[in-house]
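Annex B. Sample input.
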Amino acid sequence: MVVPRLNVTLSYFHCAILEVYRSAISLRVLKVFLFASVLLFTTGKSLTADDNLRIESIPGMAKQGEVCLIRVYSPFSPKSLHAEFQGERFLLAPGMQNGISEGLIGIDLSTKPAAYEVKVVATDANGRGYSGPFLLKVVKGIFRTQKLSLPPSMVDLDAKTLQRVNNEANRLKALFQTFTDERLWKGAFIPPLEGELSSTFGLERIINGKRRSSHTGVDLESEAGTPVLASNTGRVVLADDLFFSGKSVILDHGWGLFSMYFHLSEAQVKEGDRVGRGDILGRVGSTGRSTGPHLHWAIRMNQARVDPLSLLKLSEHLRE
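Annex B, continued. Sample output.
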């Protein structure tokens, strides 16, 4: 089926600019048109010229590693809806309230700052397709650097340990590549515990003088034994003891969204369990490669490494 593309305001600007040339209007007028088109890059608003499919994002301008809420307004009730960004397909919940559909997309930590076209594709009850693009500007995030000193045994791995680490890394990679069609999460996400932020997302770590991979979650300090809560409804897809992350729990929230809870003293769930938002998953500990009691909390969205705190910021906008 050929998906008809809606008229796009950007085409209007192109035509207008050509007309400017034909009419020999002053360069100053041309700059006004160009400036107006640039504004569309920064607002996160839809480029559609009519009201068939109007799109916006929150925030309108995203930083590397942020989560964006995509909201679609349409006069019909879509049967299916998804957004396409950076080669990934992010499902959107159709017609949640008053003709408004919405969903989340993740901007990976390493995404190059630029203006990207995000395409939203909708299908109505009769099977007719609609597509509407909008431009999302991604800007550079500000990430700190942290220097750590750890025992050589935790950094310089012997062959047997290195094999274990590689096997665990492959296991997690395969896990994050899975996709559950059912959307399990609903409404706002909550923090897994109330603790002081000790390490931020995107932190570039230098361990024993050597630069290591960036920190792809947040660390929350808390007393050992503090309950760790599920940030939203999901299914336990991993409950195991891993070398780096220690006793770990991973939840699949559906639609490519996963949350991770690492360095637990104990896990109180098992793989296959269905948990609700606020249910206890385990207790704060210092297992794995850890220097003290804390929780490492991380989020993946269609394999994009995103800041959990940016997901919390969207809570006031997320509908049940």
